[in-house]
Structures are given as C-alpha cells and as structure tokens.
Design the sequence.
C-alpha cells in the first residue's frame, strides 16, 4: 500500500507574455493530511531576498505551497480560488496556477494531464468524500498546541 502519492512534473513559470522558464514541480498528497496537496518548487525560484543580497535564502530547500485538493480538482474545470492560490483552465490542455505572496505573484502553467494523473493517484489513497475518515483530530490538536 502506498503511503503517499508523489509526482514530479514539468511546468512553465510565466515571466511575461513572450517569456517563460521551464521548472520542475513536485506534487505530493499524503493520506494523513487528506484535504491538502503540496506543490514544491526549486529554491532558485523563490521570491524571497536573503539579508546578505539578491537570490533565494531558502537554505537549498524547495519552496512548498499547501492548499486544498478540492481547489486543484475544481480549477481543472472552472476558475477557482480565493486568497493566495487561484487555479483555472487555459487553452489547450493546460492549467494555470497563480500563487500570491507579499513578495509577488507567480503564474505557473501545467499540462492538465499531469495534474489529472496526480489527482487520480491521490484518490486511490483517499477517495473524494472520504477524507473525514482519515482525519486524526487528536494529532492535529497536538500539532497546533505544539
């Protein structure tokens, strides 16, 4: 039995109307956090500036965004999201993910097939509508209280 669904895909970071950069994105779903998906981006794409000058100050760690699996599912069909993460279908078999932070906004283009395959694998672990069966309220409360 798999303990997580993880898939590394290629995406395009949109810089301007005519310019983009290819990057690797790791998508992860864990049954112990059944409502969330994670997107991890290479540290060199961080918008943060370290105290000692330009460039990312992430200690070489990937930048990870966590948001609702349902948001990713909905965004494949219709523009979805409020707050920091917005997802919408685009022309062709593409999906746009917009990530907003105080440091700036990143627009990333994915192949929708990659996202659908990842979601399918996540549903093998925890079917949609059964997330509540995998929630551990005691563990979550312990994590909140530190």
Sequence:
């Amino acid at each position: 039995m798999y303990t997580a669904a993880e898939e590394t895909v290629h995406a395009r970071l949109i810089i301007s109307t005519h310019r983009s950069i290819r990057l690797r994105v790791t998508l992860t779903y864990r049954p112990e956090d059944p409502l969330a998906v994670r997107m991890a981006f290479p540290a060199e794409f961080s918008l943060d500036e370290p105290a000692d000058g330009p460039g990312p100050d992430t200690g070489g760690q990937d930048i990870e965004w966590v948001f609702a699996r349902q948001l990713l599912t909905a965004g494949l069909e219709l523009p979805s999201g409020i707050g920091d993460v917005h997802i919408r279908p685009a022309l062709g078999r593409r999906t746009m993910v917009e990530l907003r932070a105080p440091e700036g906004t990143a627009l990333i283009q994915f192949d929708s097939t990659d996202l659908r395959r990842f979601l399918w694998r996540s549903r093998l672990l925890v079917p949609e509508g059964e997330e509540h069966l995998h929630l551990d309220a005691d563990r979550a409360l312990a994590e909140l209280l530190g």
Summary: Residues 41 and 69 are 17 Å apart (CA to CA). Confidence is low (pLDDT under 50) at residues 49-58. The beta strands are 5-16, 19-29, 36-41, 63-68, 85-90, 94-101, 104-111.
